[in-house]
Amino acid sequence: MAPPPPSAPDDAAEDAAAPGVAAPLPIPTGVVAPSRLLIYHADLRLKVPSLPRASASLDSLVRRNEGFLSAATETRADGEWRQFMTIRVRPARFHALLAALGGLGTVEEKKLTTDDVTAQHADVAARLATKRAVEKRYIDLLGRARKISEILEIEGKIGEVREEIESTESRLKTLDDEVGYSTISLACYQVLPQPVPEAPVVSFASRVVESFYTGWTLLTGLFIGLVAIWPLWLLAPVTWWWLRRWRKRQLAA
């Protein structure tokens, strides 16, 4: 009778995945921990006098430093012509390329970050090696299994472990890529000249028509104003009669 299949491993305790595996597992033989693994990243913002000339010089600088352009976008908005680029370069050429890019224009913003992923890389590599060892043990158990139920159960466990292996391999490749190539996020922009609208040329006839319209507007406004004070026109005769009467009384006295 075949031995019972081991339970599935997890990230916290890989030793629980199969019998006979000690806990915790050390880094397996053949996995060499690197001295230091650093990820360099820079954010750079430049104001350039001519974006086309700056782009041509940038391409030359990137090739000269054995880097490559992984992404680029270009926009024109708010009176600016902008380019956003992501540059990947070997760590040995990172600072040299960064200094050369700063000479393309006026540096308005510059940020540098360095992440030490040595321990993280060693941990992921150890997990990967452990998962592969667990997969091998499952395969050995599968070869000794005789019952259909045992075979199906072990095959299911193998499928789970292989998914974990693929995920861990992907994470390890991402770390290797980030360590192997530093990243520079570059933003360049050129201020676009704003066109000044020319004063319209007004002909003599247009000026005469405009003057006539202005005069007519003034005349109609005056007429409307006189109509608006109609109560004063009604009070004027009464006021004039009262003043005459008052004057006569003053003379009679």
From TrEMBL:
Transmembrane region(s): 216-243
Positions of the DUF4349 domain: 36-243
Coiled-coil ranges (or none): 151-178
Record's keyword annotation contains Transmembrane helix: yes
InterPro entries registered for this protein in UniProt: DUF4349
Keywords: Coiled coil, Membrane, Transmembrane, Transmembrane helix
Name used for this protein in its record: DUF4349 domain-containing protein
Native source species: Hymenobacter cyanobacteriorum
Source species taxonomy: Bacteria, Pseudomonadati, Bacteroidota, Cytophagia, Cytophagales
